[in-house]
Amino acid sequence: MNPFNKSGKLEVTGPMLYATGFAFVMMIVLTMISSLWIAMTDMDEAGPLLTLCIHGAALFLAGASAGRKIGSKGWYYGMICGLLYSLILILIAFLAYDSGLHLYSLLLVVCACSCGMLGGMIGVNVRK
């Protein structure tokens, strides 16, 4: 599958959109599981660390899914998936909560791209 159109520009289609949607679904599922865990135990909320772990796990699974579907350059497509995911989250935070760009936004982008890359590399190798 060639994600580039004839003009050489990247098109985000097929497996990329599927992986990004899969990341959001996994984020919702992992958030619900962690919320139940916190509610049923006397565990305290860990703050941004728990949030980054949830985003990282969701993007690792999404990157692996994209890598398996595309079959090559898993690190690249995982990183693109992580970048797209983090930009959507930053846009939602900006529009819904009037949040600006700060250090946590940069940390989210770096974590998202790293976890997506790692998942993409593993996804390509699991396919073979």
Automatic annotation (TrEMBL):
NCBIfam families: TIGR04086_membr. The chain crosses the membrane at residues 16-40, 46-64, 76-97, 103-126. It comes from the Bacteria. The keyword Mitochondrion does not apply. This is TIGR04086 family membrane protein. The lineage of its organism: Bacteria, Bacillati, Bacillota, Bacilli, Bacillales. It comes from Marinicrinis sediminis. The keyword S-adenosyl-L-methionine does not apply. InterPro entries: DUF3792_TM. Keywords: Membrane, Transmembrane, Transmembrane helix.
